[in-house]
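User: My instructor asked us to take a sequence, write out its structure as tokens, and then describe one feature of it. I'm not sure where to start. Here is the sequence I was given:
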Amino acid sequence: EVISDEHGIDAAGNYVGDSTLQLDRISVYYNEASSHKYVPRSVLVDLEPGTMDSVRSGAFGQLFRPDNFIFGQTGAGNNWAKGHYTEGAELVDSVLDIVRKECEHCDCLQGFQLTHSLGGGTGSGMGTLLISKIREEYPDRIMNTFSVMPSPKVSDTVVEPYNATLSVHQLVENTDETYCID
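Assistant: Let's start with the prediction itself. The structure tokens for your sequence are:
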């Protein structure tokens, strides 16, 4: 919602801004569809369908391309290894196909931004798997992450620190910039 607001895009994908600067830079995050609506250049991923249903039914849910919602059915159960080696590994090729399609629509691909949590299994395990695969395929592009760090003040899931610890090594190896959000 914040990025849409900054670029003058409403929940239906219409430009409602008042600045030529917004229009000049709108292609950083959006593709223009044939109906003169703007669609976010994004891929939404989870290993369970619940969060995708929440996004779709939210205020900005109709803004995203339906094909860019990729989800599994089982979840990662707050387990980094399931996200990285089993459940996430089964889904990562589908995600990479959508990432490639989005990259093909770019005039000048600069890099990637990934927002994920390091506490659960999907964001930590599958997130770092996806980062390493993107880095392998696009080694000369910038990789930035906005990584939500676990906190005992927010969640009492005991494995969150382990998931974060396993992820940090991957982030050091495969990202150019990681912004830790607490």
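For the description part of your assignment, you could build on this observation: Residues 1-40 form one domain. Try explaining in your own words what that tells you about the chain.
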